[in-house]
Design a protein that fits this description.
The chain is of the alpha+beta class. The protein has helices spanning 12-19, 65-84, 148-165, 168-176; strands at 2-6, 27-31, 52-59, 89-91, 95-98, 101-113, 116-126, 185-190, 193-202, 208-212, 217-220, 226-227. It folds into two domains: 2-176, BirA Bifunctional Protein, domain 2, CATH 3.30.930; 185-227, SH3 type barrels. It contains four helices and twelve strands. The strands form two sheets. Strands 1-2-3-7-6-5-4 form a seven-stranded mixed β-sheet, sandwiched between helices. Helix 1 links the parallel strand 1 (2-6) and strand 2.
Length: 229
């Protein structure tokens, strides 16, 4: 696996897109800081220098984005637990959680260059990050100062193991075991209306199965959810 370590970059995902044809696959791209870290739905990821792990794994094969996101979540949570003893949870679909707060996020994307497909998954993990902006009231960090290179390579190796050799049912089972909202009240928006429900399970495509207050069920393939006490 080729590894590229950058002092600073707009985002590791954008770097991967710009340079994909000239890179070997798989390539692991890690940055000390990001000036425009990417989150889902056009959001940014706070990426100050030296306090987090900001990485992208670029592949010339893979899974569709949701299942690649699921695989990265499993890989990150299991790698962190093995290296530090901290046991992270996952908030569907792409947030890494600890003690009810988000410490990391995942952004998987597919794209084509001259007709050739590429798959990439970016992760931002707050290791010792502090002084979060006021618009991130629920952000936290792991508060561990582990070796970023070791953690990055462990996560990348586990993603490769999952997408190459692991049956989808096993990936989903390991993902399900980390979900922090199953059985809990949640809310989400549909057509500008807030809907209250209870998160019940995920299906074979990692879609979230919820039971609404009126007794009906819904299947969420994307979108944001809020967890309630």
């Amino acid at each position: 696996m080729q590894t590229i370590w950058l002092e600073s970059v707009d985002s590791t995902n954008d770097y991967a897109k710009r340079n994909a044809p000239s890179l070997l696959q798989p390539t692991l791209i890690v940055a000390d800081a990001q000036t425009n870290g990417k989150g889902r739905r056009g959001r940014s990821f706070f990426s100050p220098r030296g306090t987090g792990l900001y990485m992208t794994l670029l592949l010339d094969y893979g899974l569709e984005p949701t299942l690649l996101t699921v695989s990265a979540g499993v890989a990150a949570a299991e790698a962190i637990e093995r290296l530090t003893g901290v046991s992270p949870q996952i908030k569907w679909v792409n947030d890494l959680y600890l003690d009810g707060k988000k410490f990391g996020g995942i952004l998987a994307e597919t794209f084509r260059v001259r007709g050739f497909p590429y798959y990439m998954v970016g992760l931002g993990i707050n290791l010792t990050t502090a002084d979060f902006p006021s618009d991130l009231p629920h952000a936290t960090a792991l508060h561990i100062d582990c070796d970023r290179s070791t953690l990055a390579h462990r996560i990348a190796d586990e993603i490769l193991e999952l997408v190459t050799y692991t049956p989808q049912e096993e990936i989903l089972a390991r993902y399900r075991s980390r979900l922090c909202m199953l059985g809990r009240p949640i809310s989400y928006e549909r057509c500008g209306r807030e809907i209250h429900a209870v998160a019940q399970d995920i299906d074979e495509k990692a879609r979230l199965i919820v039971r609404k207050a009126d007794g009906g069920t819904d299947l969420l393939a994307y979108g944001e959810i809020s967890i309630h006490l």
